[in-house]
Design goal:
This protein has 211 residues and is of the alpha+beta class. It has helices at 21-26, 32-51, 111-115, 118-125, 133-152, and strands at residues 5-10, 60-61, 67-68, 73-80, 83-90, 94-103, 161-166, 171-176, 190-198, 201-209.
Amino acid sequence: MPSNVACASSPGDDAQGDVFPEEAALICAAVASRREEFISGRLCARRALLRLGEASSPILRGYQREPLWPPGIVGSITHCRGYRAAAVGRAIHVRTIGIDAELHDVLPAGVLKSISVDQERDWIASAPPGIHWDRVLFSAKESIYKAWFPLTRSPLQFDEAIVRFDAIAGTFHADLRVNAPEHALPELKGLDGRFMVRNGLVLTAIVLPAR
């Protein structure tokens, strides 16, 4: 992450901490595992916000379950089994952020075909060994969506972002096959991100600087 983005993570499922009443209302009917994900993710988000100098406040969610940040803040939250993380920045510096964490394992049968196009599958078939590139691709597309939606408030299908990886540099580029709405960023034609495979996890991240 660039220096103007604050991050916080937790290497476990620790959900020990207070949530605001408004947040608790969002998960009152959720199963225990979902409550733990939500609480630990919000705790990471508040730690990241504190690093920006922001006061602690409720982080609610929108109609697509996206986190609703304090005014002037953009960010992203992710969670998978055994890992939680959040990244936030000020809108004067950063236009949008998308992060995702996944367990480093092969995707379930049939998932790769549903989230990719021929071009991506051809690259995976000849990619360097030792990495589950199907899972890295899935994570990259999750980060792409998380970066796209707050900007545009519009959906993005898996086949509308075509991902190319640089396996040596640990980077990826997404060519967007759909135009952003005029009110958002109509000149946005692609997104650049980074990936890491470490300690049994796949981590991907996108930060679009403010212009």
